[in-house]
Amino acid sequence: MQVYGQEEPPLYSLDRVQRDVGLFWSRGDVIVTPDEVRHLLQDLGPRVKKNHFIDDPDYAHASFALALCNPTVLHKDLLEFLDEYRLPSE
Question: What percent of the chain has pLDDT over 90?
C-alpha cells in the first residue's frame, strides 16, 4: 500500500519491455500455465527471441530449478540463449 497507494500493484504494460526476452516454460507448470504463456507470447511479440517449451506433464514450476533432467532438457538451450547476450571479453 505504501509503494503504490493501493493494495495491489498496478498492471505493468508489456509494451514498455524494450529488451529481447527468452521464455522457458512447460506443459506441467500449474503456477504459470501454458495458456498464460501463450498470452505472454502474444503480448511480447517480436521481443521473444527464444521460446523453449518442455512438453512434459510432470515437469512443473519447481523443476526449472530442481529437476535432475535439466542438463538435457533445459541447460543447453538456456545457455545458448544467454550466450547470445554475453558482453565481449576484454
Answer: 81
Burial 62-85 (b: 16+ CB within 10 A, else e): ebbeebeebeebbeeebeebeeee
Secondary structure of the chain: what % helix, strand, coil (to 5)? 40, 15, 45
Residue 90's pLDDT band, with cuts at 50, 70 and 90, is low
How far apart are alpha carbons 21 and 45 in whole angstroms?
10
Which residue(s) pair with 21 in the sheet? Answer: 48
Greatest extent of the chain over all pairs of C-alpha atoms, in Å: 47
**Annotated domain spans of the chain:** 20-83
Q: How many Å separate Cα 43 from the centre of its chain?
A: 13
Give SS3 for 25: strand
